[in-house]
Every structure is written in structure tokens, then in C-alpha cells.
Amino acid sequence: MSLITTHVLDASLGRPAAGIAVTLQTGDGTPIAAGITDSDGRIADLGPETLPAGHYALRFAVAEYFAASQTPAFYPVVTIDFTVRSEELHYHVPILLSPFAYSTYRGS
């Protein structure tokens, strides 16, 4: 299992957000891995099994997701910056998404 996983829920529709491109990056923006959310809004294999401690970011390309349903949206990209403190922990970084807002939390 990869060290980093994610899950996107479309809070405005009450369902998973499938088909969102997500990129795992270093803190300076260098891409490490990429994936697309599945039918359950998840990416379970995003990146390597270990990463050194440091600053990372997940970049969610949400403009295309909303455009597919002709939904006007404010944020074309959602970027979540976070810190990996230990190679031994799993980091689940989900987002709750709507056309004009998003929230995130440290999942399990």
C-alpha cells in the first residue's frame, strides 16, 4: 500500500467524486506520482510505500470534474500541503468538495 492515499467526496451531490486527476508533489512542486480517483472517489495507490519526512502536497485538478457536469466552480485546482513526519505512518488526505468550497482533514 502506498504511504499516501486520498478520497474525494462531492459534498454538493452527496457522492464520491470520480475522475479527478491528483498529483503528489514535493513541497517545491516536483511531481512524485499521479492518479485518478476511481468510482468511489479514491486513490489507494498514490505514490511509493515510503517517503522521507518533509513537506508534500496533493494537487487536485477539479476544474475538469465540474466542467464535465457543466457546473460553474470557483476553484480550478485544490492544493493541500501537509507534512510527512514518519515513514512508518500511513497518511490519508481526503477532501470534501463543492463548487465554491472545500475542506480537508487528516484521515485514517
TrEMBL record:
CDD domains: TLP_HIUase
Single annotated GO MF: hydroxyisourate hydrolase activity
Domain Transthyretin/hydroxyisourate hydrolase as annotated: residue spans: 4-107
Name of the top EC class for this enzyme: hydrolase
Keyword ATP-binding appears in the UniProt entry: no
Signal peptide span: none
Reactions that this protein is recorded to catalyse: 5-hydroxyisourate + H2O = 5-hydroxy-2-oxo-4-ureido-2,5-dihydro-1H-imidazole-5-carboxylate + H(+)
EC number in record: 3.5.2.17
Superkingdom, taxonomy of origin: Bacteria
UniProt keyword terms in alphabetical order: Hydrolase, Purine metabolism
PROSITE patterns given in the database record: TRANSTHYRETIN_1 (PS00768)
PANTHER family (alphabetical): 5-HYDROXYISOURATE HYDROLASE, URICASE AND TRANSTHYRETIN-RELATED
Role summary: Catalyzes the hydrolysis of 5-hydroxyisourate (HIU) to 2-oxo-4-hydroxy-4-carboxy-5-ureidoimidazoline (OHCU).
Description of how the protein assembles with itself and partners: Homotetramer.
Family, as annotated: Belongs to the transthyretin family. 5-hydroxyisourate hydrolase subfamily.
The protein's name: 5-hydroxyisourate hydrolase
Organism: Leucobacter chromiireducens subsp. solipictus
Gene name tied to this protein: uraH
